[in-house]
Amino acid sequence: MGASACRWRSDALVFRFSADDKESLWPQISFLPAQSGRFYYGCAGAAGLLAGLAIVFWFPALASWWPSDLVRVYRAMPYVMRFGVASVADIPLAAYATLTLSGFVLAFCHPGHSKLPIVAWAVHNQPSPREMVDWILRSWVLQFGFLVIIFWRFAFMGKLSSDRLMQIVGIFNDVCYLATLVLAGILLRDGWRDFQGVAAPAGNIRIPLIFALSFYLPFQLVWILLSAQQYELPLWGWLLLVPAMVGVLLARLATVGIALCFRRWLGTQGCLRWRGPLALFSGLTVLCIGGNAVIRQILNMIK
Hints:
Layout: E1 5-9, E2 14-18, H1 19-25, H2 38-57, H3 59-64, H4 76-81, H5 93-109, H6 115-124, H7 129-156, H8 162-196, H9 206-215, H10 219-231, H11 234-273, H12 275-302
Antiparallel strand pairs: 1-2
Helix pairs in contact: 2-12, 5-11, 6-11, 6-12, 7-8, 7-9, 7-10, 7-11, 8-9, 8-12, 10-11
């Protein structure tokens, strides 16, 4: 191919391409290891399946864990009432700071907040840090917007019952679970392609990830607004929801930071080399968690 030809060799494949084609072809190269490399795919699949099943098995314990000295998010209204405040202006700043920390712990430490998909997105598609932060902010704005649409326009103006509101919230969460399954399917498809040595660009999991983040309405956050409705203090509910949602945003941004550090540790070539096994691991783990949520929803509908 001439004097400018470049040669790259892995354990299993040999590529020859010109220097001009190197940049355009590099993102599409599949770093499938040799025969012994299939062992890594097996380990990744087994680890992903075990991790997913373990999270499903211990999900109630993981979801119920909470620091003993920190107020739970859904107890925001009773917590503020303990200060003996009579108006919104009397709510102390310490209460807002505490609820921000509570929102952070809820989204960062509890399962089901799409932390693994965020890490998978960083490694699988390698978006820029600015792009990741931008889309995480958009998903948070959409999530907050959905809460406003449901509980401001429909609840406090339409006076819907709590049961009806919870049904609407459940529909939004169903969309989140379906988007999670789509995300897992894309990861598993790409992992299988890499295992077979098929040269194909990685599927972009950004859209299903944003759907999963935006449509997920945790019941602990929802209960702040429902409690405000019961106390007939809707404005208080929104003022207490804001710091909790800020904590959720900080947790997502912290997850982005961890994902970027992990990607930097792997390096560009490492992300490409391990894209298949990591996609298989992440896909199976997310599939177990999302599948469990869908099955639970179906069983609840049957009951």
